[in-house]
Design a protein that fits this description.
91 residues; Alpha-Beta Plaits; 24% strand; 4 strands; alpha+beta
Length: 91
């Protein structure tokens, strides 16, 4: 069963743009920066659903449910394109 994380963004970003942002982060490896991606090679593919400024991330999690790493990676992905957007995580 997939895990789900919900966030509210300070402004609406269309689903196709969020998917592009995530895929860019998921496939970017910055060796030696400690940003989490190069040491987390199994960064998951996600289903991203949006409704207004709410975003639901659905993904298959491993046994350790690394939600904090996933949240940090998603924030980096969004901020790479939109520095001004604030992200508030629910739950």
């Amino acid at each position: 069963m997939p895990d789900m994380i919900t966030a509210k963004l300070s402004e609406r970003i269309p689903q196709p743009a969020l998917i592009k942002m995530w895929e860019s982060e998921r496939t970017t490896f910055t060796t030696g920066t400690g940003d989490g991606i190069e040491t987390w090679l199994e960064a998951p593919k996600m289903v991203i659903e949006t409704k207004d400024n709410e975003v639901r991330l659905s993904f298959l999690a491993g046994p350790d449910h690394q939600h904090n790493k996933l949240k940090a990676a998603f924030e980096r992905a969004v901020h790479r394109y939109r520095l001004d957007v604030r992200i508030e995580w629910e739950g």
